[in-house]
Structures are given as structure tokens and as C-alpha cells.
From TrEMBL:
Role this protein plays: Catalyzes the hydrolysis of glutamine to glutamate and ammonia as part of the biosynthesis of pyridoxal 5'-phosphate. The resulting ammonia molecule is channeled to the active site of PdxS.
Name of protein: Pyridoxal 5'-phosphate synthase subunit PdxT
Pfam family, one: SNO
Signal peptide span: none
Keywords attached to this entry: Glutamine amidotransferase, Hydrolase, Lyase, Pyridoxal phosphate
SUPFAM superfamilies: Class I glutamine amidotransferase-like
GO molecular function: glutaminase activity; pyridoxal 5'-phosphate synthase (glutamine hydrolysing) activity
Pathway terms, separated by semicolons: Cofactor biosynthesis; pyridoxal 5'-phosphate biosynthesis
Gene this chain is encoded by: pdxT
Parts forming coiled coils: none
GO biological process: L-glutamine catabolic process; pyridoxal phosphate biosynthetic process; pyridoxine metabolic process
Assigned EC number: 4.3.3.6, 3.5.1.2
A cellular-component GO term for this protein: cytosol
Length: 194
């Protein structure tokens, strides 16, 4: 029963660990390349993508992360984590790097000032049992996607949940609601890959 890791450089790591456990998975924090090598899948939490990017560089994790993702490790990114899984950021801070893997361009802080934080009930493709309550906190949206990217949910035509193969990303934070269905979906993706 290989654990699912949560990248623990910055952001709401504890909430994702709890949500994974709530979804029936074994979860552990990942800070070092050796820890990354020991997990079957990885969650990249919400937080601040510029900080996560910088710390991933300092901790020597950026290349190992890219390699694992390229090799097919399932990964799920929430909010800042979505940004980390994007091949391209529309408006990056200078020097801001991503792990990449999902053929999409994301716009940071896309919902604007008046609406920086809000909640919305979302129908998410692949998730049964009614809408998922999406908590958006200075969230990105997906500006454009390549052909292999499936949009699972959108707001006003902007994708806010996407999947490409073993990679899943949401603009919102399901780890804050006590509803574990997104983490269950990801846990099932990891189990299917094992
Ligand atoms: N605005 C943040 C960023 O650009 C993301 C916010 C979040 O993860 N809640 O990284």
C-alpha cells in the first residue's frame, strides 16, 4: 500500500493529508527527492505558486518532479498546484517555473479583485452524487487547453477542473470542504496506475 504524497513546501498541506486519509488512502508529506521516489502519486496543494516554485528549486525537487510526471506518476494540483502542473502560465512572475505536464495555459488570480474569493456549486464530470462545492481563493482559471486535455468543470466558459491522463487539476480547494470526492477520484487514479 504505497502512500500518496503531498508536496509539503508551502500551502495547505495538512488539509490535503486529511482529505486523502478521508478518501481511504495512506498519505505522507514530501519534501525531499527520496520521499518523492517513495510515493505512488502526488498532490500539489494550494498556496502561492511563486513560493512553491522557488522552494521546489531550492530543495532540488523541480527536475525530480518533472521526471516522475513525465514517467506517468499520477498527480493532482489544487489552485497553486494547478498552476504548477500547467505547461505554461500566461502571466508568470519573473523566473517562475512549473513542473508542467498538462497541456494548458493558466491565468493566475484570474477571477479579479471583487471576486478574489467565492464559492460555487459545480457539476464535475466523473464525480457522482451531485455538485461539488468549489472554494475559490485568488484562484487561477484555464485560459486554453490542448487536444488531450479534458475539461471536467467550467465557470462562464473558463475551465476550472481538468484532466489529462494521470494528471488532474482544480482551480478550487476541495480539501477545505470535508467532501472527499475529488480526493477519491484521485485515489482511484493512483490505484489504477499501481
Ligand atoms: N494566487 C495563488 C497563486 O498564484 C493561488 C492561490 C491559492 O492557491 N489559493 O499561486
Amino acid at each position: 500500500n504505497t502512500p500518496i504524497g503531498v508536496l509539503a513546501l508551502q500551502g495547505d498541506v495538512r488539509e490535503h493529508l486529511a482529505a486523502l486519509e478521508g478518501a481511504g488512502a495512506t498519505a505522507c508529506a514530501v519534501r525531499r527527492p527520496e520521499e518523492l521516489a517513495a510515493v505512488a502519486g502526488l498532490v500539489i496543494p494550494g498556496g502561492e505558486s511563486t513560493t512553491i516554485s522557488k522552494l521546489a528549486g531550492i530543495f532540488g525537487l523541480l527536475e525530480p518532479l518533472r521526471e516522475r510526471v513525465r514517467a506517468g506518476m499520477p498527480a493532482y494540483g489544487s489552485c497553486a498546484g494547478m498552476i504548477m502542473l500547467a505547461d505554461k502560465i500566461l502571466d508568470p512572475r519573473s523566473g517562475q517555473e512549473t513542473v508542467g505536464g498538462i497541456d494548458m495555459i493558466v491565468r493566475r488570480n484570474a477571477f479579479g479583485r471583487q471576486n478574489e474569493s467565492f464559492e460555487a456549486a459545480l457539476e464535475v464530470r466523473g464525480i457522482e452524487g451531485g455538485p461539488v462545492q468549489g472554494v475559490f481563493i485568488r484562484a487561477p482559471w484555464v485560459e486554453s487547453t490542448g487536444a488531450r486535455v479534458e475539461t471536467l468543470a467550467a465557470i462562464d466558459g473558463h475551465p476550472v477542473a481538468v484532466r489529462q491522463g494521470n494528471l488532474l487539476a482544480t482551480s478550487f480547494h476541495p480539501e477545505l470542504t470535508g467532501d472527499h470526492r475529488v480526493h477519491e477520484l484521485f485515489t482511484a487514479m493512483v490505484r489504477a496506475e499501481r
